[in-house]
Amino acid sequence: MKVLVLNCGSSSIKYQLMDMKGEKSLARGTIGRIGEQGSYIEHETASSKIRRGVKAASHTVGIKIMMDYLVNEDTGVIKDPSEVSAVGHRVVHGGESFSDSILITESVIAKIRECIPLAPLHNPHNLAGIEAAEKVFPGIPHVAVFDTAFHQTLPAKAFTYPIPYELYTKHRIRKYGFHGTSCMYVSGRAAEILGRPLKELKLVVCHLGNGVTIDAIRRGRSVDTSMGLTTVEGLMMGTRSGDLDPGVIHHLSTAVGLSIDSIYTMLNRESGLLGVSGVSNDMREVIESAKKGNARCRLAVEMFAYRVKKYIGAYAAALGGVDALVFTAGIGVNSPLIRKKACEGLAYMGLEIDSNKNRLAIGKESDISGAGSRVRVLVIPTDEEKMIARDTVEVVERMRGDPDKRRSPTSRAYSAGRLS
After folding, report:
1. Number of domains in the chain
2. Which of 68, 74, 147, 367 is catalytic?
3. Of 39, 66, 232, 264, which is least surrounded by CB within 10 A?
4. What share of the chain is helix, strand, coil (3-state, %, to 5)?
5. Cα Rg of the chain (Å, integer)
6. Is 80 noted as a catalytic residue in this protein?
7. Cα–Cα distance, 332 to 312 (Å, whole number)
8. Is residue 394 part of a domain?
9. Burial of 293: CB neighbours in 10 Å, binned 0-12, 13-18, 19+
10. What are the tens digits of pLDDT across the range 394-415?
11. What's the CATH code of the domain at 68?
């Protein structure tokens, strides 16, 4: 079975075509600047990597361009679009409606649309991608895979905000969490590396990228997570503030004179690493400037790592101990400095890293645990596309009535690290 994975943003389509026999990536790429001047395609296969200008006026046109490249004699990896058996779509917010991936129907689309107020920057574009793909690939299964679904196992004490309870019952204002697909993938892979079933493990997963999630996972299920109703809560990120005193918002409005919309924009797009450093939202650039003596960049690095450390400690307490700490995503996989600073001073909980192993662990799967560390410290590159493709296959097989595929949602796609 060949599965096409789509991640659609406001002006981009990220895609990957996978042959699920052996879970092999056949091609991947991006259609960028959709509906703008200078739109382009970046397309990569095992034998070539190209970037070319295209005229992508809409998501539908962008997907047609992608399909042309997938079947083209020079750049293609399949002979005909009919070789695509199913399409898996990343959808950011499923609210409380979805605790698992699901076959897309009209009622599913309606519920995703109902969640737009919870993710106004993401869900509309996810829907645009679904509608466009259904036009280009009619008659095959389309599956929605939700960032929030993995965190629907959070207990009420973790997801409920200490505000008037009616705001939850009437408006569903609560913690939802994000990056669930990534957390699910790396937790399953951690179980494989440790040679233990997920049902025995307590894990803290640090997804450190431009967006940051830290997740507490017990027995393969998310029990607490750092992001909340939106993607602003939690850790300091590339451009997002993360946790701060809610009174700051009132002060910015009354004392500084900012509108609520401008405050929201600032907390989403002008804060975090960018806001503190004044240089960049890219940790690599911030670290380089810090090495050259930029005091604000040094502060940004220290703040970022310090806040990661605080969450590790908090979630270790929530879990009642930790079997393994996992670093993933761009910063987590590629920054020995951040890993080092985040783990400093945690020897009291039996967690130590090997400085040499940590230094060498850049962009690859590694065990950086110190010789005497009771807590294993792992670096695992995430693969959300593979996770989406796995979920898509399982939903399709369940839909077709394969009795061997009728497993509980949390058992799916954990590979050898399954719960059982």
Report:
1. 2
2. 147
3. 264
4. 45, 20, 40
5. 21
6. no
7. 13
8. no
9. exposed
10. 999 988 875 444 333 433 434 4
11. 3.30.420.40
